[in-house]
Design goal:
Blueprint (H helix, E strand, L loop, with lengths): L1 H8 L11 E5 L2 H16 L6 E6 L2 E7 H8 L23 E4 L10 E3 L19 E3 L1
Parallel strand pairs: 1-2, 1-5
Antiparallel strand pairs: 2-3, 4-5, 4-6
Helix pairs in contact: 2-3
Bound molecules: zinc ion (ZN).
């Protein structure tokens, strides 16, 4: 139960002076792909240390890079490796990065593993604003 583990680790106070991305996980099955994406995001820039965690639509708090590593590294291959590389067809869950089109949005970017083109996500900070898929 990765999600319970993450909920238990989340802190309630936001980091000072750091813009945090949002990590959105809709269900336990999607957790691994979402976490892989989160680690890749954090790994790309050393100044990124914390993520805002949203599980099943509820904001649960903030997680540090070290919390993610201890949750993920035992379960997945090396962070950043795509477990789905080379598979034909789109996998059900993959690492997805969304961004809000509004400049300076506090919730952007949003890291997740589920995306429905028929019913695109909207920005939590800007209700009604559809998030754009980053590739
Ligand atoms: Zn926004």
């Amino acid at each position: 139960m990765i999600l319970d583990e993450l909920r238990a680790k989340a802190r309630s106070e936001p980091p000072k002076g750091e813009h945090v991305a949002s990590l959105v996980i809709d269900d336990d099955d999607a957790a691994e792909a979402a976490l892989e994406g989160a680690l890749a995001y954090l790994g790309a820039d050393r100044s990124r240390r914390t993520l805002r965690l949203v599980i099943e639509g509820a904001e649960v708090g903030y997680l540090d890079r070290s919390d993610l590593y201890t949750s993920v590294t035992l379960r997945t291959k090396s962070p950043g490796d795509s477990a789905h590389a080379g598979l034909p067809g789109p996998p059900r869950y993959r690492t997805i990065r969304l961004r809000c089109p509004i400049e300076g949005c506090p919730d952007s970017p949003i890291l997740t593993a589920t995306y429905d083109e028929e019913n695109p996500r909207t920005c939590p900070a800007h209700p009604g604003t559809v998030l754009e898929l980053e590739t």
